[in-house]
Amino acid sequence: MGKIRTRILGLEEVEKKQKEEQKKRASEKKKVRAPGLKGGERMTEVEVKETDVEKMEKAKKIIEEETKTKKEEKKTVKKSRVRGKKYQSAKKQIDPKKEYSLLEAVQLLKKIKYAKFDESVELHLNIDEVGLKGEVEFPYSIGKTIRVAIVDDKVLAEIEKGKLDFDVLITHPQYMPKLVKFAKILGPKGLMPNPKAGTISPKPEEVAKKFEKGTVRWKTESKFPLIHQLIGKISLEEKKLVENAKAFLNAVGIKHIQSTFIKTTMSPALKIDLKSL
Q1: pLDDT, tens digit, for every residue of 130-161?
Q2: Which of 56, 98, 120, 242 has the most CB atoms lying inside 10 A of its own CB?
Q3: Is 241:132 a contact under the CB 8 Å cutoff?
Q4: Residue 232's domain spans which residues?
Q5: Helix (H, G, I), strand (E, B) or coil at 121
Q6: What gap in Å lies between CA 147 and CA 276, rounded to an integer?
């Protein structure tokens, strides 16, 4: 049975006062349904004062703001990369202010080598323009096998299947119309034959032999005047690494080069003195 409320009848003023008090009490209360119940379950009604509801809303806003702030902080905080002891030890042996001759740089790279595998030796160039490209024939092997393919019906069928088992694609001019439909596949990968790269020729077999000997195409990054090039493995003789490096720098053109750095896969970079070339 609900709560019994008494009312004095017959006295209009008293009855009116009682009604006003009841309305006031009712206005100070607000019904809130308990969360977490699924459809079909009995809902329990809880009477909460208006002031309590306001406090709950304020607390909810504070919690939401704090949660949002923490999420934003997690996004902005970046973990700084910590190099290993071997890398730090190698770095201490390099003078960051010095510009090394190619021979000095190669000798030092061999000295500070700490990786267990045969690391690649790389040149990294800052040049004066974007879009510079060309080719170079290294005097010694750079430790990478160049896969050369000559276009024929079989190769076209493989390309259509999405198989691109080659690093250089050479074609006779008569096959160019058939290659056009694959431009969107070959173009972005730098494999589309073109006259400037010397990969379109009436004598594709002769061109293929040239690339198989070690001729490599190079170009800048698409949006930045930077060139990155493998010139050999650290196990290669010092003299051969130096000769490969010189061949590549001359192919790019010393006049275009603003600065050059040499490093292995795992080592810090050494700056090269271009005047010593």
Answers
A1: 989 888 989 998 987 788 999 999 999 999 99
A2: 242
A3: no
A4: 96-143+216-277
A5: strand
A6: 35
